[in-house]
Amino acid sequence: MLPSIFGESLFDDWMGFPFRGFESDVDRKLYGKNAARLMKTDLKEQDDGYELSVDLPGFTKDQIELNLENGYLTITATKGLEEEGKNKKGKIVHQERYTGSMTRSFYIGEQVTEENVKAKYENGVLTLGFPKEEPKKLPERKTILIEG
């Protein structure tokens, strides 16, 4: 077992070093080495539907967009750097907040419409509720009479 600090392996940077050129570094540049852990999600099944909870800390409701197309619910969160240091004297010594966009899609069923999805954003958590997709009924089997 490797020692870890705050849920990350102490050797993350060393072990990944020789393989850096083979993977896409876009997310790494935008969000640092924690990019894989963004948009943590929980899905809870209820009697009448599902509840999807997505962690989006630091975003405002206006920075989050929801789209439903062909049964896929897509969540997009876009954030730009704030210019809070622009009017103040001094320079930034260390900066970990980046600008960028993150997207995640979930298949929720082709029979679910925009009106069926209920969304709420509170305390950095986006909560979505949507009904269960009704199973398609098979046509009743009918007997065909043969004449003759």
Structure description:
- By secondary structure, this protein is mainly beta.
- It has a domain at 40-131: Sandwich (Immunoglobulin-like), CATH 2.60.40.
- The chain is 7% helix and 34% strand.
- The protein is built from two helices and nine strands.
- It has helices at 12-16, 26-31, and strands spanning 4-5, 8-9, 41-45, 49-55, 64-69, 72-79, 100-107, 118-122, 125-131.
- The strands form three sheets. The chain has a four-stranded antiparallel sheet, with no helix packed on it. A three-stranded antiparallel sheet has the order 5-6-7, with no helix packed on it.
- A hairpin with a 3-residue loop joins strand 3 (41-45) and strand 4.
- It is elongated, with a radius of gyration of 23 Å.
- The N and C termini lie far apart (78 Å).
- Residues 1-8 and 17-24 have low confidence and may be disordered.
Write the layout of secondary structure elements.
Elements: E1 4-5, E2 8-9, H1 12-16, H2 26-31, E3 41-45, E4 49-55, E5 64-69, E6 72-79, E7 100-107, E8 118-122, E9 125-131
Antiparallel strand pairs: 1-2, 3-4, 4-9, 5-6, 6-7, 8-9
